Amino acid sequence: MNKKLIRRRRLKNALFQGVLISIIVFSIIMLLLLLYQVFKVGFSHLSLSFITSMPSRFADRAGIASALAGSIWTISLTILFAIPLGVGTALYLEEYANKQSWWTKILELNISNLAGVPAIVYGMLGLAVFVRFLNFQRSILSGALTLALLILPVIIVSSQEALKSVPSTLKEGSYALGVSKWQTITGVILPFSIPGILTGSILAVSRAMGEAAPLIMIGAAGYIGFMPKSPLDSFTVLPIQIFNWTSRPQAEFQDIAAAGIIVLLVLLLSMNAIAIVLRNKYQNRMD
Amino acid sequence: MKIIYNNVDFYYGNNHALKSVNLNIEENKITALIGPSGCGKSTFIRTLNRMYEHIPKTKITGEILLDNENILTDAYDLAELRKKVGMVFQKPNPFPKSIYDNVIYGPKKHGLKNKDALDSLVEKSLRKSALWNEVKDKLNKSALELSGGQQQRLCIARCLAVEPEVLLMDEPTSALDPQSTLKIEELFQTLKESYSLVIVTHSMQQAARVSDQTAFFLNGEIIETGTTDDIFTNPKDQRTNDYITGRFS
Amino acid sequence: MKKKIKKREFIIEKSLILFAGISIITTLAIIVTLFGETFQFFKEIPIMDFLTGKTWAPTLVPKSFGVLPLLVGTLMIALFSSIISLPLGLGSAIYLSEYAKKRTRKIIKPILELLAGIPSIVYGFFALTFITPLIRQILPQTQIFNVASASIAVGIMTLPMVASLIEDAMMAVPNSVRNGAYALGSTKMEVALKIIIPSTSSSIASAFVLAISRAIGETMIVAIAAGQSPVLTFNPLESIQTMTGFMVNMSLGEISQGTLEYKTVFAVGTMLFFMTLIMNLVAKGILYRNRERY
C-alpha cells in the first residue's frame, strides 16, 4: 500500500517535470520559429544594395540606408544623454544620498514607477516637450532625448546594482587614506563596477534600438529619402521602416521587412553578445 | 603624548558605544586595545581617523587631541587627518589593481605625479612593510594574486606610502595563518621606531607579545590602562583579571 | 590643493543631485503634459460620453468619442496574452529554480533573455506573417487582423519577464526550507507546489500584475497584428483597436497641436498612463505588504 503510494507520488512528480520541460521547450521552439520565419522570408532579400539603398515605392529597389543611418545617429545620441545621466543618478543614490531620507525614498519610488511607464507614453512626453515646447521639431535630437528618458530608469537601476556589489571594505580602504569621495568613486568604485554598469547599459540601449512606438509618436517619418547629416534633421529608424513595410498589403514589402528585421536583429544580438561576454568576465572575477 | 582622549562619548543612533573615554597614547609605542567583542574597541579606533563619518546617525562629543590639536573640529581637515592617521583593516582589502598601483594609490590621489618619486616611494613603502623582496619582480601583477599575509602587508605599505604618523590596526591578523601573523607581528616592532601603533586585537597573547601599553575595554568603557606588563601580571580591576584569565569572553 | 578638492567635491555632489532630479522632472513633465491636453479634451467632450460611449469614431462624421471599444480591445489583449504568459512564466520559473541543474540553467536563461530582448516590432511581424496564417488554417473564419494572434505574440514576449521575476523570488528561498521537506521524503513537485509557491505567492501575484500592465502598454504588436478597427466585440478572432493602436495610428498622420485629434490622443494616453501606473503601484504594494522574510 505504502509502496504504491510512493510510486504514484513519483509518477506525479515525473509528469509535473514533463509539463515544465515542455513549457521551456515551447519557449525555445517559439524563438526558433520566429527566427526561422524571419530568415525564411527575408534572407534572400538581403544584399549589399539593400543596405546601401534608400527606401522606394518599389520593393525590389528599396533599401534601409536612411533608416540604418537614422538608427545609428539616434542611438549614439541616446547613449550620450542616457549613460552619464543614469550612472550619475545611480552614483548619487548609492554613494551620496541618505538612504533613510524621504527625498531618497521618493526618488527611488519615482524611478521604479518610471520603469513601468509604457514606451508610447514617453513618446507623448517627447512630442509635447521636445518637439513642440523646446521646438526641436521631429528631429533626431527629439528622438534621442525621448529614448534617453525611456531607458534612463533601466540604466539607473542596473547601475545601482553594480555599485552595490562594490565591497565596502574597498571603499573604506580608500577613505582611510584620506582620499575624497569623488576620488574614491573614480579610483575604486567605478573601476570595480564598470563591467556591471556597461552590461546593464548595453541591454538598455539595445532596448532603445528596437523601439518604434515612442518615435512614431514624436513624428519620426515612415519614409526618408536622404541620409541624416545633423541632429536636427528629420529621420526614421529601422523599427519604423520595418513597421512601415510590414503594414503594407503587398507581400513583397513584407519580404523586405523581414530583411530589415535581420539587420536589426544582427545589430541587437551583437550588442547582447558584448553584454554577455562582459558579464561572464565580471562574474568570474567575483567568484 | 601623541594622542589624548578627553571624555569622548560616541553614539550610533541611540546606542551609547563609547562612554566618557579618557586615554593617552604615547609616541613610538604600540598600544593594544583588548576586550570582548562588541566592547567598543573597534569603534574606538574608528574615532581616531573619523571613519565613523561614513555611517549615518553617529554622534561624538568630547575632544581627541592629536599633537595637541583637536581633530573633532570641523576646521581639522579630514584628508590631512587620515594622511597622518593610517588604518589597516581586519580583512586584507587590496584594490583589484596591480601591486604598484595599490601602493601609489594614496599619494597619487593626493597629487604626487612625478614618476621617479612614485617609484622610489613604492620601494620605500614595500621595504618598510617587509614585502619588497617578495614582490619586487612582479610589481605589475594583480594584488589579488598575493597570499593573505602578503596582501595585509601590502595594505600596510599602502598606508605607509602617504607617510602617516599613527597606524591604526583593526585586528590585522585575525584573518591570517600563524606564519603570516608572526611576520606581521615582527613587522610591528620595526614600525614602532617611526610610527605610533594602535592595535585592536581579540587575542590576549598577541597583546602581551607585541604591545607596550594595553587598554582593556568593556561595554564601551575603558576599565583599565597601563603598561602591558602591569595589565597582564598585576591587573587592578577584578573585571580585567577575569578577562585576561579567560573567565569570560 | 585642499580647497580645490573641497570645491570640486561640492560641485560634483550638487551636479549629481541635479542628475537625479531629472527623473523627478520627467515624471512631473509626463503628468503636466498629459493632464493639460486631457483637460482641454474634456472641455469639448463630456467625460461620461468618453468613459461610457460604445462608439469610437474620432475622425469620422459624425464624430464619436466613446472609449469602450478601445478599452475592451486593450483588455482582451491583456487577458488572452496572460493566458500564455502567466502559467508558462510560472512553469518556467519553477523549472529553473527547482528542477534545472546549474548547466541547464546556464543555457536556458540566455534563451529567455533573448526572447525578452527581441523588439516588439519583430513579434508583430511574426504574429502577422506566421501566427495569423496558422490560426486561419485551423479556424478559417478568423479575420486577417485579430486579437488572438496579437495576444499570443504579446504573451510570448512577456513570458520571460514573468519567469525571471518569479525565479528571482524562488531562488531567494533558502535551501534550508527545501531540505526540511526533502528530509521528510517529499518529491520535488510537492516541494514546489506546497512550499515554494506558497512562500513566494506575493512575488508571483506581483509578477502577474506587472505582466498584465506590460500587455496593456504594448504597442507595436497590436498595431500590426490586432487591426485598426475600433469595434466593440468580445470575439478574439475579430479585428479590434487598442488604446495604444489608436495612438500610433493617429500619429502616423500629421496631427497638429490644438486640434481635437491631438487632444484625443492625449486623453487616451492619460487613461493608459493611469491604468499602468495603478497596476505598477498595486504590484509594488503586494510585494511591500508581504515581504518574504527568512
SSE layout and pairing:
The complex is a heterotrimer of chains A (287), B (249) and C (294).
Chain A lengths: L1 H41 L5 H5 L12 H32 L5 H14 L3 H15 L6 H25 L3 H8 L5 H30 L2 H5 L20 H9 L4 H36 L1
Chain B lengths: L2 E10 L2 E11 L4 E5 L6 H8 L9 E9 L2 E2 L7 H7 E4 L10 H11 L5 H14 L3 H4 L12 H13 L5 E5 L7 H14 L4 E5 L3 H7 L2 E6 L2 E7 H6 L4 H7 L5
Parallel strand pairs in B: 3-8, 3-9, 6-7, 7-8
Antiparallel strand pairs in B: 1-2, 1-4, 4-5, 9-10
Helix pairs in contact in B: 3-4, 3-6, 4-6, 6-7
Chain C lengths: L1 H43 L2 H6 L3 E2 L6 E2 L2 H32 L2 H16 L2 H19 L8 H25 L3 H9 L4 H12 L1 H17 L2 H6 L17 H10 L7 H30 L5
Helix pairs in contact in C: 1-12, 3-6, 3-9, 4-6, 5-6, 6-9, 7-8, 9-12, 11-12
Estimated structural class of chain B: alpha/beta
CATH H-level superfamily of chain B: P-loop containing nucleotide triphosphate hydrolases
- For the termini of chain B, the CA-CA separation is 31 Å
Category by helix and strand content of chain A:
mainly alpha
Domains of chain A, number:
2
Task: Give the SSE string of chain B.
Answer: EEEHEEHEHHHHEHEHEEHH
Q: In CATH, what is the homologous superfamily of the largest domain in chain A?
A: MetI-like
Report the top-level CATH class of the largest domain in chain A.
Mainly Alpha
How many structural domains can be distinguished in the coordinates of chain B? Answer: 1
Instruction: Provide the CATH topology of the largest domain in chain A.
Output: MetI-like fold
| Basic shape of chain B | globular
Low-confidence stretches of chain B: none
Describe the structure.
The complex is a heterotrimer of chains A (287), B (249) and C (294). Chain A has helices at residues 2-42, 48-52, 65-96, 102-115, 119-133, 140-164, 168-175, 181-210, 213-217, 238-246, 251-286. Chain A has 287 residues and is mostly helical. Chain A has 2 domains: 2-45; 50-286, MetI-like fold. The longest helix of chain A has 41 residues, at 2-42. In chain B, a hairpin with a 2-residue loop joins strand 4 (58-66) and strand 5. In chain B, helix 4 (115-128) packs across helix 6. In chain B, the strands form 2 sheets. In chain B, strands 6-7-8-3-9-10 form a 6-stranded mixed beta sheet, sandwiched between helices. In chain B, strands 2-1-4-5 form a 4-stranded antiparallel beta sheet, with helices on one face. In chain C, a hairpin with a 6-residue loop joins strand 1 and strand 2 (64-65). Chain C is globular and about 70 Å long. The longest helix of chain C is centred in the first third of the chain and has 43 residues, at 2-44. The mean pLDDT of chain C is 92. Chains in contact: A-B, A-C, B-C.
